[in-house]
Automatic annotation (TrEMBL):
Alphabetized UniProt keyword annotations: Calcium, Cell adhesion, Cell membrane, Cleavage on pair of basic residues, Glycoprotein, Membrane, Metal-binding, Repeat, Signal, Transmembrane, Transmembrane helix
Matches recorded under InterPro entries: Cadherin, Cadherin-like_dom, Cadherin-like_sf, Cadherin_CS, Cadherin_Y-type_LIR, Catenin-bd_sf
Record carries keyword Disulfide bond: no
An annotated GO BP: adherens junction organization
A Gene Ontology cellular-component term: catenin complex
Membrane topology: Single-pass type I membrane protein
Cell compartments where the protein resides: Cell membrane
Pfam families assigned: CADH_Y-type_LIR, Cadherin
Organism: Loxia leucoptera (White-winged crossbill)
PROSITE patterns: CADHERIN_1, CADHERIN_2
Cadherin domain: residues covered: 10-116, 117-224, 234-339, 340-447, 462-552
Role, per record: Cadherins are calcium-dependent cell adhesion proteins. They preferentially interact with themselves in a homophilic manner in connecting cells; cadherins may thus contribute to the sorting of heterogeneous cell types. M-cadherin is part of the myogenic program and may provide a trigger for terminal muscle differentiation.
Protein name: Cadherin-15
Length: 743
């Protein structure tokens, strides 16, 4: 191994220092020299940042002398040192020395001002904070060498307005309170101008703003703007605002330390008033929660206090609670009358005669300080049973009160009474009058049924169950009492009556009686007060008894005709009914035969006359076979229908209709023929013999054949040569076309 070669001392280059911002360019930095001098000389070169690497062109070397030059100003903040490599070669390019390091150090100059991290710093501190309470820290930076005084910063407050309330740490930039007495209500915001300087405060400087906000605490109680407030409210209203009481609080508006709370301390024992806080203005709003009565109390004097929602800070000196007096005057207004007894319940006997005074139903007017007159009227009287005195309020019966009635509800009749004062505008009230219609024993019990059948043997079917009904309601009805008429004591020898239940009794035969009808006078009595009784007749048919005590069939048939009606009378009634039915059938058959014969003759006579009838097609009846509509003979032969001639019988006359009282009068002129036809149409419409419009009509059937010729006969003169139609021109404009065709 070769021993390490000793490097010549001339070839070892110590670090070279050069100040940044050096302006004399080019500037000789150093001259390098190799100990191995060759006859032809040595070629020197350098490489590295600032030469052949970015940034280019800052350094250069004289290749023959080895002098290194600075060609541009340096900036330590960009590059604080450069490390280059130096080479020594002969003319042939052979390395004479090993490459050596060349380090160039850039010496710093104070060419950069300090910079605050932000233009405005913000901090908060509560008002009243003790001195030494730190609020915030401001900080700045310096691009110069931190190991030199060029970057040694010092902080200070240039301006803060008031008398030095804050101080700053010169080294750290921390801002703290310097004096007591911070009061947000006096000054809520402090604006400080702070400075940072390098060179330990003697170099370059820069400034920024520090804004300090004082946070509010509850150190000011609310106060009323004045000691007395006056308000006015109408009586008989509730849920309305009366007015406001105004307060002032120096604390921050909208904060919990500012919100007020009101209390009514005195003057409202009934709790008619309430007070709340307006969240926007912090004022107290007084309202009425219970209706006030001017006649009872026309003014109030309230004592109201106010305090904050949040309690005062302990450091605040104690002060008495703020008080104010609120005077409220109650304004009198017209009040509606009132019925003290509503509803009014009374009782009236049924059948009370008209005009009877049943009660006096009046109202009172609360407006005792105003002179007013009340008037009364019936607002609701569904059965129109009552009448009322408009001035005195006396209610009388207008007609007899009946029971039962559809207008009663559970025996009660409901009416409404209206009371109205004469103020402007008038007010009214409604009272309910409930009238109980008391039951009166005005009906005697009725025997049901009034007839019966029983066997004539005692003890073997010789009993009959009797019942009764009463139109009166309890307690004027059952139990019923049945007994034989005391006016006929002889009935007790053959008959007896025993009670079965509260509504029925049992009639029994005491001795064997012959068959036949019997009429027994009975006396029926109810249990009303006073009781009502009535003598009634019971028709009993005693039948032929069988072995088991029941009536035989023949006997039952005879008895079924009813009490007092014999078999002969029944046969006469049935025979008369059958005879009437036979006579009615014969009459109907005779009339039907006459109508058929008359219809046959008319059809044979009218085969050559195609306009024999005006057909009522709007009835949609039997089509052209329906020839019972109207008789045109009245138009064709009017002389037959003159007042002196006997009018012919209408073919469509009903069975019950006879000859008309007088024939229709002919028109006085041919132009009135339209009225004549309309009268005939009205007569046909009211004719009961034709089908009514509400019967099931056949619309798609018009008969099996037609007795009329085709319509082409209207313009033909083959069959009408013997007919004179000149009179058609005298019938008016409606018949002008027919007159042109046939005239």
């Amino acid at each position: 191994h070769e021993a390490p070669r000793r490097v010549k001392r001339a070839w070892v280059i110590p670090p070279i220092s050069v100040s940044e911002n050096h302006k004399r360019i080019p500037h000789l930095l150093v001259q390098i020299k190799s100990d191995k001098q060759q006859p032809g000389g040595v070629i020197y070169s350098i490489k590295g940042p600032g030469v052949d690497e970015e940034p280019l062109g800052i350094f250069s070397i004289d290749k023959f002398s080895g002098k290194v030059f600075l060609n541009a100003m340096l900036d330590r903040e960009e590059h604080d040192r450069y490390r280059l490599r130096a080479f020594a070669l002969d003319l042939g390019g052979v390395t004479l020395e090993e490459p050596t390091d060349l380090e160039i150090i850039v010496v710093d100059q104070n060419d950069n001002r300090p910079l605050f991290r932000q233009d405005v710093f913000t901090g908060r501190v509560v008002e009243g904070a003790e001195p030494g309470t730190c609020v915030m820290t401001v900080d700045a930076t310096d691009a110069d060498d931190p190991d030199t005084d060029n970057a040694a910063l010092r902080y200070s407050i240039l301006e803060q307005g008031a008398a030095g309330m804050f101080s700053i740490n010169a080294t750290t930039g921390e801002i703290c309170t310097a004096q007591p007495g911070l009061d947000r209500e006096t000054m809520g915001v402090y604006n400080l101008t702070v400075q940072a300087a390098d060179m330990s405060g003697d170099g370059l400087t820069t400034t920024a703003m520090a804004v300090i906000y004082l946070e509010d605490i509850n150190d000011n109680p609310p106060e009323f703007t004045k000691e007395e407030f006056s308000m006015e409210v109408e009586e008989q209203v509730a849920g309305v605002d009366v007015g406001k009481v105004f307060v002032h609080d120096k604390d921050l508006a909208g904060s919990p330390s500012w919100l007020a709370k009101f209390t009514i301390l005195e003057g409202d024992p009934e709790g008619a008033f309430a007070i709340r806080t307006d969240p926007h203005t912090n004022d107290g709003v007084l309202s009425v929660v219970k209706p006030l009565d001017h006649e009872v109390r026309d003014r109030f004097e309230l004592t109201v206090s106010v305090q904050n929602e949040r309690p005062l800070e302990p450091s605040v000196p104690a002060s008495p609670r703020a008080l104010a007096t609120v005077r409220v005057r109650v304004r009198d207004v017209n009040e509606a009358p009132a019925f003290r007894e509503n509803p009014r319940r009374i009782s009236v006997l049924e059948g009370t005669p008209p005009g009877t005074a049943i009660t006096t139903y009046t109202a009172s007017d609360p407006d005792t300080h105003q002179i007013q007159t009340l008037s009364y009227a019936l607002l609701y009287d569904p059965a129109d049973w009552l009448q009322m005195d408009p001035h005195a309020g006396t209610v009388r019966t207008k007609r007899e009160l009946l029971h039962p009635s559809a207008f009663l509800q559970g025996g009660w009749y409901i009416a409404l009474v209206l009371a109205r004062d004469d103020a402007e505008p008038p007010l009214s009230a409604t009272g309910t009058l409930s009238i109980e219609i008391l039951e009166v024993n005005d009906h005697a019990p009725q025997l049901q049924p009034p007839a019966g059948v029983l066997c004539g043997r005692p003890g073997r079917g010789g009993t009959l169950l009797l019942g009764a009904t009463d139109d009166d309601r309890p307690p004027h009805g059952a139990p019923f009492h049945f007994q034989l008429s005391p006016q006929h004591p002889q009935l007790a020898r053959n008959w007896s009556i025993a009670r079965f239940n509260v509504t029925h009794a049992v009639l029994a035969v005491l001795a064997e009686l012959p068959e036949g009808p019997y009429s027994l006078p009975l006396l029926l009595r109810d249990s009303g007060t006073p009781p009502r009784e009535q003598q009634q007749l019971l028709n009993v048919s005693v039948c032929h008894c069988g072995r088991d005590g029941t009536c035989l069939d023949g006997a039952l048939a005879a008895a079924s005709a009813g009490a007092g009606i014999t078999l002969g009378a029944l046969m006469i009634i049935l025979g008369s009914t059958i005879l009437l039915l036979v006579l009615a059938a014969l009459g109907a058959a005779r009339v039907r035969g006459r109508r058929r014969a008359l219809r046959k003759g008319l059809l044979q006579r009218s085969r050559d006359d195609m306009r024999d009838n005006i057909l009522n097609y709007d009835e949609q009846g039997g089509g052209e076979e329906d020839q019972d509509a109207y008789d045109i003979n009245q138009l064709r032969h009017p002389e037959l229908f003159s007042p002196r001639a006997k009018p012919p019988l209408r073919r469509d006359a009903p069975l019950s209709s006879g000859t008309p009282m007088a024939p229709r009068k002919l028109p006085s002129s041919p132009s009135d023929i339209e009225d004549f036809i309309n009268e005939g149409l009205e007569a046909a419409d009211s004719d009961p013999s034709v089908p009514p419009y509400d019967t099931a009509l056949i619309y798609d059937y018009e008969g099996s054949g037609s007795v009329a010729s085709p319509l082409s006969s209207i313009v033909s003169s083959l069959t009408d040569e013997d007919q004179d139609y000149d009179y058609l021109s005298e019938w008016g404009p409606r018949f002008r076309r027919l007159a042109d065709l046939y005239g």
